[in-house]
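FAQ

Q: What does a record look like?
A: Structure on top, sequence underneath. For example:
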């Protein structure tokens, strides 16, 4: 127990909890959302405030251990935890969200979850655009960019970010904004966790809610190409309203709470699921979405006005912690007919009902931000795609991973390059230089300035050797 006493001696006054293998709390703290990840870090440090984070970083430097940072633990490649070659700084005790309604600003600690952000802002008629699985860590989502149902209306989450407080690789606490450490502020808006541990995000809120109009249409595979052509025509138009989000998602027809509307004969059967979301006036949303759904060969549909916060939690029970997960992603400029045909054929081969692949539409407010304004490199990308293997049985690993890779090969000839870092599976073609695209060179230079020893290396890493 010498190591524990040493860590406690150094960190005790800072209120940092120290978890070693075999001590209470260690097993739970090392577990991630992706059940495939089974790593045992040398130790897990749980600070309560920014001073504790700084002390944890200084201790890591003293004992010469690199750092993995855990917010919500949703990193699909498992970046949130390391093996015994490093230690984890777990921010779960720093999960507060406060809202200044008059200033329209939310202050979010580094370990907060999206649920906390939504539930804090909604009572004030405010929102920060973010992702749609509420147990995702806000920190990881923000640092990668921040996709979600409101991105076409309000931009990525980073486009609402006004400043951060963070701890650098030497343990120094700094502020970063457009006017202070501006190069660092540019880098953390899309550069993932490469530059330090963000302990506080300050985000601009937008007037919104409390209700939204949503719909979901199920199309059987025999009619899926027809539906995809309608969707492509609508969402491919550069004049499509920013208020409209419409995803094409192939998966087994869902079941469980909230999906009682799905016909029994389709439950678990591969289908095209098309969620539609309207971010504006709900009466207008009912009209627009009603017209769009009316053009689809639907087997089942549900639509109506729901509370914004509830809409953000509808898929939580599908993406629960502990399931096995493998993903590959990319971007497409076009969706030709032959690709649509091939995707329907891929859907018919999915090995488990929870396996899926989706195509989204960027544009809108995302594309109106300058290409060089932030480190997010894909402002003009049109169609992000994401293939997700999601299953429970270890014996199904090879089958599920193989299916994801086969679907990716179908997409490959049509990919325009790069991948959204928060979708990336960690084994992308071209390494991290492909993930970060045109911002990679500047990001690498800043990495060498702020973290020359690559202390923060458990991420989509920007060390030149990882290119």
């Amino acid at each position: 127990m010498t190591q524990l006493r040493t860590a406690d001696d150094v960190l005790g006054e800072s209120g940092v909890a120290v978890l070693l293998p075999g001590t209470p709390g260690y097993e739970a703290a090392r577990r991630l959302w992706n059940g495939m990840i089974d790593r045992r870090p040398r130790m897990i440090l749980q600070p309560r405030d920014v001073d504790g984070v700084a002390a944890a970083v200084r201790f890591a430097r003293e004992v010469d251990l690199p750092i993995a940072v855990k917010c919500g633990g949703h990193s699909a490649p498992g970046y949130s935890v390391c093996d015994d070659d490093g230690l984890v700084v777990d921010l779960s005790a720093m999960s507060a969200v406060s809202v200044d309604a008059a200033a329209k600003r939310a202050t979010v600690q580094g370990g907060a979850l999206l649920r906390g952000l939504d539930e804090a802002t909604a009572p004030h008629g405010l929102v920060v655009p973010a992702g749609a699985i509420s147990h995702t860590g806000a920190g990881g989502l923000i640092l990668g960019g921040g996709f979600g149902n409101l991105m076409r209306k309000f931009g990525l989450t980073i486009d609402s970010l006004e400043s951060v407080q963070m701890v650098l690789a030497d343990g120094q606490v700094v502020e970063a904004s457009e006017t202070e450490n501006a190069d660092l502020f540019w880098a953390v808006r899309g550069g993932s966790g490469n530059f330090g541990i963000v302990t506080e995000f300050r985000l601009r809120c937008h007037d919104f809610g409390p209700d939204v109009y949503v719909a979901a249409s199920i199309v059987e595979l025999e009619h899926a190409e027809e539906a995809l052509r309608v969707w492509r025509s609508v969402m491919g138009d550069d004049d499509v309203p920013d208020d409209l989000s419409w995803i094409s998602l192939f998966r087994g027809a869902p079941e469980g709470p909230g999906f009682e509307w799905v016909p029994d004969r389709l439950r678990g059967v591969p289908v095209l699921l098309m969620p539609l979301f309207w971010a504006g006036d709900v009466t207008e949303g009912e009209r627009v979405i009603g017209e769009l759904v009316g053009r689809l060969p639907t087997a089942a549909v549900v639509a109506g006005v729901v509370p914004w916060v509830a809409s953000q939690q509808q898929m939580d029970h599908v993406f629960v912690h502990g399931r096995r997960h493998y993903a590959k992603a990319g971007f497409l400029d076009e969706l030709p007919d032959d690709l649509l045909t091939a995707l329907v054929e891929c859907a018919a081969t999915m090995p488990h009902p929870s396996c899926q692949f989706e195509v989204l539409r960027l544009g809108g407010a995302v594309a109106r931000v300058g290409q060089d304004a932030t480190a997010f490199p894909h402002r003009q990308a049109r169609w992000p795609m994401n293939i997700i293997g999601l299953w429970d049985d270890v014996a199904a690993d090879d089958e599920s991973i193989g299916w994801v890779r086969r679907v990716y090969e179908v997409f490959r000839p049509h990919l325009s390059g790069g991948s959204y870092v928060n979708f990336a599976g960690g084994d992308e073609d071209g390494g991290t230089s492909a993930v970060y695209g045109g911002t990679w060179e500047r990001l690498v230079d800043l990495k060498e300035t702020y973290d020359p020893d690559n202390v923060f290396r458990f991420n989509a890493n920007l060390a030149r050797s990882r290119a």
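Q: Is there anything notable about this one?
A: The chain is about 25% helix and 20% strand.
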